[in-house]
């Protein structure tokens, strides 16, 4: 009996990989997902879905429950600036809830999710072999520290060309009712705290910082937030990720394509990670459906250009103390500019 040839093997069963698998199935392609971790997978994540991410999920037939998000608020000391989303609401969604919704839809479409760890890979004229499977294409969606990216020689120096120090993220949930429908971003000297409503009785608290330390240590830079959650019950363990910046020298190596964090990552500062993963996943599926994988790198650059530019610019300012102190005051003094930037982020 001839060995089965799949259209696509997806390595990594997080949101980016599942979005590719689901997109492939909806396009009539035979896909299979390799994910070594069993069940629903959690990850350090701000969990605020921008309106563009909500629309991308809707296009895939996925509608995870969560809490409506109407905009973004920046805080620094007594200063505060708010910008509403113009094109519809975003949504605060627990990472586990999002993963479960995507995984359920993938399985409903008949896509196998196999407990396989891919540690070797070989490319041939018309197919790829990995994890005991054979496919026309392989999609690497295995995260920030992608093993497949290393295997195909697409890993770049994460610090090359950057004057900013490495940054890490930590996240925990608390049993507290949201006091606003906005993602609240509080700025400190070397870190930012993000409070995201993820349900009627729960918030997620994430800290991004260039200084390493435990969650309690990081919260010391945000005394008002620390006081607000001091009596609240934690409803999840602390999860961390980093260093956040990861470079890829390209997104395509023969029949292997990178998506999500594996394709290269700047920072979580603007909260666009999931929206970008979903939009580039759709581009990847389009290229595979047309049997034109080489087009994907250009499509990825085009789709991610605005997000990368905004994130790099804000991160550049964040890395300069004199400028960083002026970011929130600038949003207060120029509310229309802040609203325009948020509108760009929300697309």
UniProtKB/TrEMBL annotation:
<dbReference type="InterPro" id="IPR050407">
    <property type="entry name" value="Geranylgeranyl_reductase"/>
</dbReference>
<dbReference type="InterPro" id="IPR002938">
    <property type="entry name" value="FAD-bd"/>
</dbReference>
<dbReference type="Pfam" id="PF01494">
    <property type="entry name" value="FAD_binding_3"/>
</dbReference>
<feature type="domain" description="FAD-binding">
    <location>
        <begin position="7"/>
        <end position="63"/>
    </location>
</feature>
<protein>
    <submittedName>
        <fullName>NAD(P)/FAD-dependent oxidoreductase</fullName>
        <ecNumber>1.-.-.-</ecNumber>
    </submittedName>
</protein>
<dbReference type="InterPro" id="IPR036188">
    <property type="entry name" value="FAD/NAD-bd_sf"/>
</dbReference>
<dbReference type="GO" id="GO:0016491">
    <property type="term" value="F:oxidoreductase activity"/>
</dbReference>
<keyword id="KW-0560">Oxidoreductase</keyword>
